[in-house]
Design goal:
This protein has about 220 residues and is an all-alpha fold. It has a two-stranded antiparallel sheet. Helix 1 crosses helix 3 and helix 3 runs antiparallel to helix 4.
């Protein structure tokens, strides 16, 4: 009598059976509770079929569905990254083109290089200052900025030096401060290297003179 009641409860009609099986695989009901009346009727046939259904849905169909959702989400995220990369690259190309336009406008003599005089004169324009400020480049220290752009220290800036330097210094104000420290450290290293070479030559000359003096004193004795 109890088995019949449970069978009618879980599998009384097609709709009830579908709802029961859906709750079994989604956690809406304990599947052991549903399996109990089925085993009573026929343990191996109905119980085995029920176990096979649970196994197939849990480890087959549901895993495939979850994997599909995960793969779709990963693909969407990858597309978003690609879009962001393309957008950033396009922005860099646009900025570089504007910097080249600035260089061409500042190069009044058409030499292909920018002197400090040309650079300073062009920075006097308000729209030029505004554009540099929009890139977080501090134009209040224009000569310092020019020195940072002049990487080979020949007192003129080529278009490649200018574009690369502006892109390198573009960003927060602290970036230009870091580059100032890098430039100062580079110059200090060069001066230290020259000092060490001079000191080494002086040391060798002193050793030579002391050796000659010692030899001369030994000869007299």
């Amino acid at each position: 009598q109890e088995t019949s009641v449970l069978l009618l409860k879980w599998f009384g009609n097609v709709d009830d059976a579908m709802v029961t099986l859906f709750m079994v695989i989604t956690g809406g009901v304990d599947w052991m509770e549903v399996e109990r009346p089925l085993k009573t009727v026929n343990h191996w046939l109905y119980g085995g079929m029920f176990w096979f259904f649970v196994f197939l849905m849990q480890f087959g169909v549901l895993n495939v569905v979850v994997g599909t959702f995960v793969a779709t989400a990963a693909e969407i995220a990858s597309r978003d990254r690609d879009v962001m990369v393309r957008r950033e690259l396009q922005q860099m190309v646009t900025v570089a083109q504007r910097i080249r336009t600035f260089f061409q406008e500042a190069d009044v003599n058409g030499s292909g290089t920018l002197s400090w005089t040309e650079f300073k004169a062009h920075l006097e324009k308000k729209e030029v200052k505004a554009y540099f400020n929009s890139m977080d480049l501090d134009v209040s220290q224009a000569h310092l900025l020019f020195c940072l752009l002049d990487t080979d220290e020949n007192n003129v800036v080529t278009i490649d030096e200018f574009v690369d330097g502006c892109l390198r210094l573009k960003g927060q104000a602290r970036n230009i401060d870091i580059n100032v420290l890098i430039a100062a450290h580079r110059k200090l290293s060069e001066q230290l290297h020259k000092f060490m070479e001079g000191a080494d030559l002086s040391h060798r000359a002193l050793e030579f003179k002391l050796g000659a003096l010692e030899h001369a004193i030994s000869g007299r004795i």
